Amino acid sequence: MSHFPIVSTGENVTRQVLSDHSDLMVVAFRFQATGAIGALHSHPHVQATYVESGRFRFTLGEREQEFGPGDSFVIPSGQTHGCICLEPGTLVDSFTPRRDDFL
What superkingdom does the record give (predicted)? Predict the structure, then answer.
């Protein structure tokens, strides 16, 4: 069990840091309702996303792609990305280096 707090990041979306090190951070994003949005954004960190459960439509730069349980992908540094929840579930994201803004 993570000792980090659960933080609301939008309507029906929460974030919880699961583990961190200066070089790497693992974070769970939980989407509780269909239609919940992970807003479009970009950051200098490289991000790997694993779909633990649910179904999501991601915008990755100029393209859109759907992902479901067991899928994973990498988002390069600086790429604009975001998602819409198609079925409630959890995304597990890893960031390198650590997202200090999440602490």
Answer: Bacteria
